User: What shape does this take?
Amino acid sequence: MFALIDANNFYVSCERVFNPKLAHVPMVVLSNNDGCVVARSNEVKALGVKMGTPWFQLRELAETHGIRAFSSNYSLYADMSSRMMNVLAVYSPDQEVYSIDECFLGLAGFGNHDLAAYGQRMRTQVRQWLGLPVCVGFGETKTLAKLANHCAKKNLAGRDGVCDLTQLSQTERSGIFAALPVNEVWGVGRRLTEQLNQRRILTVEDLRTANPETLRKAFSVVLERTVRELNGIACQSLESVAPNKQQIMSSRSFGTYVYDLPGLGEAVAVYMARAAEKLRRQGSLAGIVQVYIRTNPFKDNAPQYHPSLSIPLPEATDDTARLIRAAQWGLKRIYKPGFAYQKAGIALLDLSPQANAQIPLFASTPDRHSLMQVMDRINATFGRGSLRSAAEGMQQSWRMKRERMSPAYTTQWDELPGVG
DNA sequence: CTATAACTCTCAA
DNA sequence: CTAACGTTGAGAGTTATAG
Assistant: This one.
């Protein structure tokens, strides 16, 4: 038995907690660089605005309906998220934090309880303690719990934001599933929906009753598992401890186009510093550095260029300076003048545990572990970028746009209204 | 020829 | 005033390459 708890319009709801006047105001939260819509209030959804719509395309609609837009304030959302996870953790010994706004709870042995009432308690407590609206779904598998959550949100089964599929007979479930399009199933995206529809699999019920072996042959083992999960056979277990990353990426679009190598070099250094910090936090070393830059793919009259390069390191490392040097070495090789670059990114690949580090065959400058440790500690105490590599630059004129940002209410004293 | 590396595609939030 | 379209990570399957 699983529960899936998911916040409603999470980023929008976080903004409203600290600015209650925004309740019922049509509003959106924008992606990095104030680019696309990534969260919509119900009022905006009702206007037909799709997830991922570029903000500039909404100007007219926004003006006529008074839609308010906010830059995404990740320090606020991350903090609210961790508070929410802490509240929910008390409801089960097993919790999997699946994303910033949702978690699974493992409910083995809860079979005899009134799950719907249990879900209501979660909802009430999260609402009281945090001011956030959430919905709760229960099912025998993670896929069913996800689907139950969707039913709760749409008021298709259950009531008041909670849906317990486990209490329904197969006939009752089939009735609900037959009314749900197949793309509502976790793991069925745009492409798969297209191909399933061609095979006359249109609804969740069509998929549930399809032959798993046939689908495995035609598609993949993933889809086979999904079909079994829809039938109550658990193929996915709860992952309560997040495994270490196998790759770490950092990339960002620029606030304005960058044309020259020094500008790109700064950006690459900043992204690498972030990635290296994550790398050290999980106690890994990177064996390969990848770097890429690209022009704006949406500007079809401009010349396009999107090169990338992998740089194998002589020894795996977590030393920021070494990693930056490798990335910039690669950048120099792929850079060509005459293009308007819109984005740069780096990746750390071939990660291995620090404990298994190989002793270098050829003597070279040792990694500066204690320096890295001090740097991480200073930045943890005084804020990101307090101590940084000179390669990251001072002006950073390429930095992303965030022109509509709300204060970091829960993590920065000086951003609180009325605090000097 | 086979095992692995590297890359592509899809999906998720 | 004009131009303006996200980020990170995983897994499966396919293709390229090394030995």
